[in-house]
From TrEMBL:
Homodimer. GO terms for biological process: aspartate biosynthetic process. This is Aspartate aminotransferase. GO terms for cellular component: cytosol. Its EC number is 2.6.1.1. PANTHER family: ASPARTATE AMINOTRANSFERASE (PTHR11879), GLUTAMATE OXALOACETATE TRANSAMINASE 1, ISOFORM B (PTHR11879:SF55). Its cofactor is pyridoxal 5'-phosphate. Gene3D superfamilies: Aspartate Aminotransferase, domain 1, Type I PLP-dependent aspartate aminotransferase-like (Major domain). Belongs to the class-I pyridoxal-phosphate-dependent aminotransferase family. Residues 37-411 form the Aminotransferase class I/classII large domain. It is an enzyme of class 2 (transferase). It comes from Apodospora peruviana.
């Protein structure tokens, strides 16, 4: 009789206990808090003025159209996804009249939201970015979305950072950023946030984007745009895509990760796209075809076929003129509420005479704001006022509303006065 095996192939020294994801740990702690005053400023999802998730009215209409479609089925999508969705997603970013489409320089692949798009791009770079003289190090802004770090390192790419947030001005360190890009080895991979930078809420101006492009062109750097907030940042889809369109206009070869979680409220449906744009050349169409073929193989081995329902919702809206216009109005509603909360928070802090300057609250854009609060201050806010935010002082503006913004401002005022 064979003896039972009592030892594991995965001892602690081989598979150590991983730390809990900080953001999901914060969410868990918030849910466990039974204080009636608790405030959730960590969540990266839109909330209405009642602190509730908001299903966009246009999404409800699209959902109704789909559910009443007698031909609706749940068959597999092609590996590259729903073409009526990916085609319009590309047009949304580049503009429908972009020469890149006419010249067949764009390949679009449906992904598991923006995270899946970044991951697919990372896989592609890890396997194929091997041109002579190219640096395989990915340059990330300091700070950046925390998940960027592990997505790239998990596929074997090395990462480093370039200066981005200026702690003194609480704005963009444009000179530090340009200097780092100029000093980086030629053909380095540069990860750029297209708009509504996460976590700082600090975006380059139109002129600064052009300065960044000039430096990158001089060093032949490879841009990889992460676009998670188009239309959600300023309320204007075209304005939020300006940086990407300028880089394409300048002839860059580039990658784009695109999410529809925030701007459609399709968080759990995981609707996203990954786009490759070839540089202008007589061989552009052939290059794009080859790239698309390899992306399909990578996608096949990872998820086989992308999920269909969120893509159908977005496609229904993007391909219907009336629904598309209604969507833009819904975007203005969300971005407008965020802007209102920024103004309210700044006004209340200034009325209280809270030490420091608070103009950065309204200077920044998008869902998040880098408050400038220290980790010690953040922890005291949690312990004394049940305010939950990430340790680096980032808050989700969507967590503020007309009922809690004054409470939060007074809490910040007290803590800042006692710890300055």
């Amino acid at each position: 009789m064979a003896s039972s095996v009592s030892t594991t192939s995965f001892p602690a020294e081989a598979v150590p206990q991983a730390p809990e994801d900080p953001l999901f740990g914060l969410m868990r702690a918030y849910r466990a808090d039974d204080s009636p005053d608790k405030v959730d400023l960590g969540i990266g999802a839109y909330r209405d003025d009642n602190a509730k998730p908001w299903v966009l009215p246009v999404v409800k209409k699209a959902d109704e159209i789909l559910r009443n479609d007698p031909n609706l089925n749940h068959e597999y999508l092609p590996i590259a996804g729903l073409a009526s969705f990916t085609n319009k997603a590309g047009e949304l970013l580049l503009g429908p009249s972009s020469p890149a489409f006419e010249e067949k320089r764009v390949s679009s692949t449906q992904t598991i939201s923006g995270t899946g798009a970044v991951h697919l791009g990372a896989l592609f770079l890890a396997k194929f970015y091997k041109v002579n003289g190219a640096s395989r190090t990915v340059y990330l802004s300091n700070p950046t979305w925390a998940n960027h770090n592990q997505i790239f390192t998990n596929v074997g790419l090395s990462i480093t950072t370039y200066p981005y947030f200026d702690k003194k001005t609480k704005g963009l360190d444009i000179e530090g950023m340009k200097r780092a890009l100029a000093d980086a080895p030629e053909r380095s991979i540069i990860l750029l946030h297209a708009c509504a930078h996460n976590p700082t809420g600090v975006d380059p101006t139109e002129e600064q984007w052009r300065e960044i492009a000039d430096v990158m062109a001089a060093k032949k750097h490879f841009p990889f745009f992460d676009c998670a907030y188009q239309g959600f940042a300023s309320g204007d889809l075209d304005r939020d895509a300006d940086a990407i369109r300028y880089f394409v206009e300048k002839g860059f070869e580039l990658l784009i990760a695109q999410s529809f979680a925030k701007n459609f409220g399709l968080y759990g449906e995981r609707a996203g796209c990954f786009h490759y744009v070839a540089p202008p050349s007589p061989q552009a169409a052939e290059i794009t075809t080859r790239v698309a073929s390899q992306l399909a193989i990578l996608q096949r081995s990872e998820i086989s076929n992308p999920p269909i329902y969120g893509a159908r919702i977005a496609s229904t809206v993007l391909n219907d003129k009336a629904l598309f216009e209604e969507w833009k109005e819904n975007l203005r509603t969300m971005s407008g509420r965020i802007l209102t909360m920024r103004k309210a928070l700044r006004t209340k802090l200034e009325e209280l005479g809270t030490p420091g300057t608070w103009n950065h609250i309204t200077d920044q854009i998008g869902m998040f704001s880098f408050t400038g609060l220290s980790e010690t201050q953040v922890l005291r806010l949690r312990e004394e006022f049940h305010v939950y935010m990430t340790k680096n002082g980032r808050i989700s503006m969507a967590g503020l509303n007309t009922r809690n913004v004054e409470y939060f401002a007074k809490a910040v005022d007290k803590i800042v006065r006692e710890t300055q």
